[in-house]
Amino acid sequence: MKAQVRSQILARALIILTDLSPFGRERPPRQHILEGMKPASGAPRRHLPTSPFKPPPPAPPAKRFSVDDQVTHDRYGLGVVIGVEDEVAVLVDFGSRQERITTPFNKLYKL
Q: Where is the composition biased (Pro residues) (predicted)?
């Protein structure tokens, strides 16, 4: 009886050491816990009506720029909008350089 148990233990140890399943196929590579997790989605969470917490404030409306608008930027200074890309980005001429500034336009202000 002891010999049979011992042979079973050795067989299992051999399987673990060779990293093969009992069916002869290789096991998938092991992953770290964080590598196997999916990243959180960028969608905002919905507010439940029964929640005791205040709902998040609504998002401010997106700034709209049009061609020939005079603008100022915290880093680049004064400029003129020379192109608009469907509320995704604006192309601004700051005199010494042209910059494509993407949404959100946190540092860009219309004059």
A: 52-61
CA distance 45 to 55: 10
DSSP-H helix ranges across the chain:
2-18, 33-36
- The answer to whether position 21 is within a domain reads yes
Is the pTM of the predicted complex or chain greater than 0.70?
Answer: no
pLDDT tens digits along 11-25: 666 555 555 555 555
Range of the domain at 24: 2-28
Among 79, 110, 111, residue whose Cα is nearest residue 100: 79
Relative to beta strand 70-73, strand 98-102 is unpaired
- Give 62: exposed, middle or buried? Use CB within 10 Å, 0-12, 13-18, 19+: exposed
CB atoms inside a 10 Å sphere around CB 7: 10
**Which residues make Cβ contacts (< 8 Å) with residue 59, sequence separation at least 6?**
none
- For residue 51, being part of any structural domain is answered with no
